[in-house]
Backbone:
């Protein structure tokens, strides 16, 4: 494809880089610094919560940029997704990982807010925490796991993003189009169960398609 999508690709890549890098730095650097400098459990929770709360607006902007760029690129490459062998499957996998990362990020913030309220010295926060009591130890354990899950999931998105870049090589596009064109479903005149049935009636092999 000769058309360029520099702005969309920049939004997609910079947003994903900030999402992955910020979550990884927080899990290693911020949480580690909070454990070293906090004198007790409450102090550690307060330091970590303050750092994560400061990062949240930037993280939300990065995620938004990534999603806007990703949606734009998906629209711009819809023909390749539909017709190039293998691109559809990798796109579905990328969407699934992105959804899982979004869910993990959102729940991480919910737990983080609970820990923030439970450890805050502010009387108003203490009143809110009393109305919605939380087991601080349990919440922190769950939070620690989720804070590692987010960089792991976004790393998977980065890997699939690299795969998409490789699939855009001219030779990969030609090979993918040829494989799709030679597939029994397309040769039979369509896709889906009806096309499979027509392929079988014509005595054509029915299992040479790649996902």
Residues:
């Amino acid at each position: 494809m000769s058309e360029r999508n520099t702005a969309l690709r920049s939004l997609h890549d910079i947003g994903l880089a900030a999402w992955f890098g910020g979550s990884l730095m927080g899990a290693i650097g911020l949480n580690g610094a909070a454990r070293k400098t906090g004198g007790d459990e409450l102090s550690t929770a307060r330091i970590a919560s303050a750092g994560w709360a400061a990062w949240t607006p930037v993280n939300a902007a990065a995620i938004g940029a990534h999603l806007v760029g990703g949606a734009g690129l998906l629209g711009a490459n819809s023909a390749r997704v539909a017709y190039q062998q293998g691109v559809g499957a990798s796109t579905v996998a990328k969407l699934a990982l992105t959804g899982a990362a979004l869910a993990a990020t959102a729940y991480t913030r919910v737990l983080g807010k609970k820990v923030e309220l439970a450890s805050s010295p502010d009387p108003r926060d203490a009143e809110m925490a009393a109305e919605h009591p939380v087991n601080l130890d349990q919440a922190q354990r769950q939070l620690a796991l989720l804070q590692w899950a987010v960089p792991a999931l976004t790393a998977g998105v980065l890997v699939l993003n690299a795969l998409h870049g490789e699939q855009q090589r001219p030779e990969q596009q030609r090979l993918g189009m040829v494989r799709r064109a030679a597939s029994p479903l397309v040769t039979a005149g369509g896709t889906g169960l009806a096309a499979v049935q027509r392929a079988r009636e014509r005595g054509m092999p029915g299992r040479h398609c790649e996902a």
